[in-house]
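Task 17 of the worksheet. Students: predict the tertiary structure of the chain below and write it out as structure tokens. Keep your answer in the requested format; marks are given for formatting as well as content.
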Amino acid sequence: MFYLSFLLFSYVSLSNEKKEYSQVKIEGVSTIVVESESYRENKTSYCRERSDPSEVIWEEDFSSAILDKETWKYDVSNGFYDKGKFVYGWGNSELQYYRGAKTEEHTNENLFIEDGLLKIQPIHHRRAFQKEFDYTSARIKTRDLKQFTYPSKITFCFKVPTGIGAWPAFWLMPNEDIAWPQGGEIDIMEAKGRLTNIAGSALHFGEGSHNKDEIVQNVVIPPSVRFQEKFHSITMEWREGSIKMFLDSETEPYMTVQDNDKAFGEFSYPFDRDYYLIINVAVGGKYDDHKIDRTAFCLNSKCSNKDNPDDHRFLIDWIEYARLEP
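Model answer:
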């Protein structure tokens, strides 16, 4: 989930539905708002239907209050070591300290399971955590526990948090030890807490942190269906030499990348390999130009300073990893 330095936008087409497009300016960039018939109905969740059980390789419904230790482990820190040097802020000047499991349920005050939902909430501490960090959050991953590869489709049904500075994401990194971004990074979804109806997907690749490229695509839904107020799904269809991203039940992808695209003329296409999954909420950082509103965050584990605490949490309803024809 590294900083995205540019955006590429494309038209999203709809099949078997009335096509309605409107041109808008978002932070000075022209893009397309897609309004399909499915968004004319007011629903709590617009997530696509679940796959046929015979196709499902693995799924996570968070039906237990215990986070599965056989699947998930925590990252604990505010950064990582690179060639013996500690990189603070995870390479993006992020402000949060990720905390580890604190209970028998393999959870903590930043990450817990409630009402069948995985909930990740950043907390703003009035007294700095460990005398250094004003924010804590959680980041879990499946590294060395569960891997994902092609041909497959991976779907997340989720609701993003609101608040300037919140940066929720689910993404894939290579299982093997390889310098970033040589093995590729797949950001299936990331969002900015201050934008109500936009989410994005991104692919990172290249030879090193100063010799790289990325492909980024934002998807925009009608303002009447605010992204932060409803559950939505993003599905990645992953085949050899090809990645497609779909929003909700749409039949046409909002993002399509192939290994023969011009973007891979300088750097090779690295995404035909095994990956592990990461889910997290970062705070601040380069992704949204260091914008942050301290009052937007929970102040404690119960988020008692907010009338609707779940509005300030990243909610994951279910995850599905299913077979896909090559």
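Marker's comment: Residues 84 and 179 are 13 Å apart (CA to CA). The mean pLDDT is 89.
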